[in-house]
Amino acid sequence: MFLDISTLYLVATMMAAMLGAMLMFFGRQENIPALKWWGTAYLLGAASVALWTLAGGMLGGNAFGGMLSLALTSVGFLACGMVWNASRVFHGRSPNLPGLVLGAIAWIAAVMVLGPQASALRMTIGAGIVAVYAALTASELWTERRRTLQKRWPAVVVPVLHGAVLMLPILLGSFLRPQDAEFGSSIWVTIFSIELVLYAVGTVFVIFMLVSERTVTAHKTAASTDPLTGMFNRRGFSEVTARVIEREANAGRPVTVLIFDIDHFKSINDRFGHPAGDEILKLFSTIVINALRISDLSGRIGGEEFAALLPCSLEEGVLAAERVREAFEASGIVVDDGPVDTTVSIGVAGGPAGTELEVLLAAADTALYQAKRGGRNRVEAAEELPLSLEQWRRKTAGLASNVPRPAIASLA
Asked: Which of 255, 261, 331 is nearest to 297 (CA)?
C-alpha cells in the first residue's frame, strides 16, 4: 500500500512554509542573517513544491506547461543553494552568489539540451544537483565546526543522509533495473516524499542547535571577558590558567605569575576624569599583550590590577615584567590638562611544577606590596612562596592591622 504522493508533498510544503516563517521571525527578532537565509530558502522551496503540486494538471506537453514546470523546479534548486549559503553566512563567510544560481542554471541547461524522452536522466541530474548542495552544506558545517564532532555530528549527518536518499534509489535503478520505467516513479518517490518531511524538521532542529550553541558560547565568553579591555576577567583568567598549570605540571615545567598595578590610578581618574582612566587601562592592556608571548595568558583581575601567567622560570618572568614596565613608562599620554603619568608596579612569583594559582597570586601580591613601598614603577620578585594560603592571609591581615590607615592609603 503506497501513500498518496500529492498528499505527502502538500504536508511537506505546509511544514516547510511554517518552519520557514518561524525561521524568518526569529532571524529578524534576534538579528541573525543566517536564519533569514534559511527561512527564505524554506519559503521558496515550499512555494515551488506547492505550485508544482497544485498546477500538476497544467504541466502537460504544451509550451506554457513546460515553461512553468521549468521555472518552478529552478526555484526549488535556488532554495537548495540558499540553504548552502545560509551555512556559510552562519559561520561568518560571505554568500557564494555564483554557486547560489549555478544549480538552477545547470538544471535549465539540462532541460534545454535533453529531450522529453530522457526524463530518467533529467531526474538523475536534478537529484544530483540537490545532493551536491547537501554535500556542500555538510562540508561547510564540518570545516567550520568549533566544537568536537560529538556535538556537531547531527549538523553533518542530516544533509548527508538527505543527499543519500536522493541519489541511492536513482543509482540503483539506473544500474540494476535500467529498463524498468516504474522503478523511478514508485517506491523511491514515496520514500523521497516522506524524507522531505523528515529533512525539513531535522534541518530546523540542526539550525536551532547551532544557534543555541553559538548563544551559549557568546554568553560564556561575555562572562569570562572584561568588556573594556577585551582581556580575561578574574573568572576567565582563573579558568584558563588552571588548564595551563595542569599541562605544565604534567610536563614538569615551572610557571610564573605577574601582578600589575597601575601607579596613582585613582589620582589619574580624579585629575583627568574616568574616560582618561579607561584609555589608560586599554593602553596598558595592549602593552601587556604585545610585550608577552602568544603562549602567555593575561587578564584584568581588578580595577587597575592585571595579572599574567607565564609558562617559564622566575628569572624569565622578571625579564618579561621589565619589558612591560619600560614600555608603559615610555608611552606617556598628554591630555589638555597636562601629561599623564604612566608607570606600573609589578610583583612576580614563580613556583615549581604544580604550584596552585592562588598560591602564586598570593606570593606575587606580596611582592607587589613591596614594589609599592619601594617607590613604585619597579619590578619586585617574591623571595619565597607562602607555606599555605591560610597562613599568608593571617600574616597579611596582621601586617595591615599594624599599618596606620594613612600609610595604607598612600600605597594605592
From this structure: 255
- The amino acid present at 44, given as its one-letter code, is L
Residue segments in the chain with a per-residue pLDDT below the cut of 70: 1-9, 12, 52-66, 116, 141-206, 208-210, 213-222, 335-338, 386-412
Whose CA is closest to 44, among 54, 52, 56? 52
Question: Nearest to residue 308, comparing CAs of 258, 345, 234, 233?
Answer: 258
The single residue listed with the C-alpha cell 509550451 is: 63
Summarize pLDDT for 21-33 with one digit per residue, the tens. 887 888 787 788 8
338-340 and 305-310 as β-strands: parallel, antiparallel, unpaired? unpaired
Residues 140, 195, 248, 304: which is the catalytic one?
304
Beta strands in 129-284 (DSSP E): 255-262
Could you confirm whether 304 is annotated as catalytic? yes
In tens, the pLDDT along 123-168 reads 778 777 877 888 788 777 666 554 444 455 555 555 555 445 444 4
Nearest-angstrom CA–CA distance, 225 and 37 = 31
Per-residue model confidence (pLDDT) at position 171: 46
Q: Compute CA distances 324 → 279, 291, 345, whole Å.
A: 17, 6, 10
Q: Are 248 and 254 in contact (CB under 8 A)?
A: yes
Q: Could you tell me how many residues make up the chain? A: 412
Residue 276 CB neighbours (<10 A): 17
Indicate the pTM of the whole model. 0.52
Q: List, in order of start, the domains of the chain with CATH numbers.
A: 5-223 (1.20.1070), 234-410 (3.30.70.270)
Following DSSP, what letter does each residue of 272-302 receive, concatenated? Answer: H-HHHHHHHHHHHHHHHHHHS-TT-EEEE-S
